[in-house]
Amino acid sequence: MAMPADFQVAVIGGGITGASAANHLAAAGFSTVLLERSDFASGTSGRSSRLQHCGLTYLTPGRSIWNFLLHPLMALEHLELARRAMRDRSRFVRASPGQVRPISFNVPLYRKEGIPPWKAKLGFRLLELLDRGGVSLDFQQLGARQAALEPALRGLHDGGDLTGVIRFTEYQFDWPERICLDAVLHARDCGAVVRNYAEVAAIAAAPNGGWHLEVVDKRDGDTHTIFADCVVNATGAWADELTKASGLTLPTVNQGLKGTNVAVRLPPEFRGLAFETTLADGNPFYVIPWRNLHYFGPRDAPCSPSPEGFRADEQTIVDLVEDFRSVFPGVPLSRDDVLYSWAGVRPRTARFGHPDGCEAVLLHDMAKAGAPGYFIHTGGLLMTHRHAGASIAKAVSRRLKPACSGQPVRYVSRTLPTDPSSQPLSTGGTSVSIAQLRFVAEHEQVRHLDDLMFRRTPLGWSERMGLDVAHAVAEAISDIMGWSAREVAVEVDRYKALVAHQFGMELACD
Ligand SMILES: Cc1cc2nc3c(=O)[nH]c(=O)nc-3n(C[C@H](O)[C@H](O)[C@H](O)COP(=O)(O)OP(=O)(O)OC[C@H]3O[C@@H](n4cnc5c(N)ncnc54)[C@H](O)[C@@H]3O)c2cc1C
Question: What's residue 68's pLDDT?
Fold first, then answer.
């Protein structure tokens, strides 16, 4: 596929960080190219717990008041992370209310954990102070007796140790892949060239400044060389891999951490309720509603961004079920109740002495390491992606003047056109019309069936992972995609294999 050869900025990686960077850069007037080797949002951004966290996690276990007093720099860093989380939460919820949904989160308080209710209340008060006038946390405190009256809370581990339950509102992205896609398409509307299935094989410094990028177009196998004054490496967990493959000797900046979630159907009293707690080993554990199901996790462990980092292993699934049973001994749940699972490798900022990396979200300007105009982003999160995009555009603007005049950054959710006469395809409470499928296939750079099922429409994240409608979807767009009957069958088989391998769900496609 032909591509212009000269840009001011090349953004590599079409996850949430790269998409947001491209959106901000293109809106600021920079001539921008966004290159993603697979589909947009198919990396870690498509494997998260989908939370717009309020930042409570930055103030909780391992981060006791003593820990904070002993490590004041860490305390300041975590307060800043919590402040940014709260502020970005408010901004996102206010700017894009249709892309998030409020969820009532419950945090059980146990005597043995040594967090008395007053301390928990203080933590929430602090969060609110970090974002005065922001979106409310709707903080509530239930005593142990009051909690025992609520059916879903009765299943909690107690043993007479429960001192109460904290309840507050978190927001859940519905759904992150589409938020990423929307940012990519807004960038395209502002003039950016956006390419999925375009892998950057190498980056080399150009003799008179700027960078040459070798780009392999995975649709036709052609290799192109393009030039960019600045490069933004937003490849997340692959950031160091790309630097090394290019022969650039730069410091290691990333540490991968694999996280896993499993989806189950919980009893009706759990409907719409979420839980956040700390396991006996000190790790966080979340139980989060998703349509008619719940998912729980994440059981983080250091990992490279290999394909194995993007599928749940059997032992972790079994361990997660055990985790659940330790928190809810009153709810019978076994491995057989797991409907599907997913895993991803978090891109964490590397830090000496921290084998799991750290939570800092950083833009590394590699000019100091002898690579001017080469930026690497680490620790990027869904919940702070707009801030990341804005800071990347700001850093680039310190080196370059935009080629065109700027315009406001667009965040609005791109709703698919509705046509009441078009037949709907429905599965597990999710419905998309044939006209919408055809619109997406025509206008949103779809190559494979899973691009459409998981990242352009929500069909893939339905209860049966879209296996029941995959064939009908492929047929509905076959003429636009140029798929013959045989190619439709190949795409459906590919989809089935992907869902079985990456999500552990095997069902016959209808
Ligand atoms: C289990 C789990 C739960 C999580 N929960 C949350 C949560 O609740 N809230 C939250 O905010 N965050 C959460 N996260 C973290 C969040 O999902 C990630 O930090 C974020 O998605 C990272 O985005 P990214 O754009 O930096 O990376 P990615 O989404 O991985 O994007 C990087 C992209 O670069 C591409 N790429 C790599 N190499 C090349 C190359 N050579 N050429 C072109 N493209 C390339 C990849 O294909 C990939 O698409 C969670 C993560 C996990 C694993």
Answer: 57
